[in-house]
Automatic annotation (TrEMBL):
Listed transmembrane segments: 7-25, 40-60
Species per Swiss-Prot/TrEMBL record: Aminipila terrae
Keyword hit for Phosphoprotein: no
PANTHER family linked to this entry: MEMBRANE PROTEIN, MEMBRANE PROTEIN-RELATED
Lineage: Bacteria, Bacillati, Bacillota, Clostridia, Peptostreptococcales
Stated name of the protein: DUF378 domain-containing protein
Name of a matching Pfam family: DUF378
Keyword annotations of the record: Membrane, Transmembrane, Transmembrane helix
Keyword Transmembrane helix: yes
Entry-linked InterPro entries: DUF378
Amino acid sequence: MIALRKIVLALIIIGAINWGLIGFFRYDLISSIFGTNLELISRIIFALVGISGLYAITFFKGQRTHV
């Protein structure tokens, strides 16, 4: 389970960096790495990042807030 969380976190970080590059510089790192010939692989990576984001919601389950 710890390995899955690390993979999910890595995918979220990759996605966040890619969205930051798109937002600031209009540069899509994932698409530029895999090119237009491998568009399917880019879409799979984007889908995995999205699923990872949804899974990351469970990271908040059971956390206690300390004020």
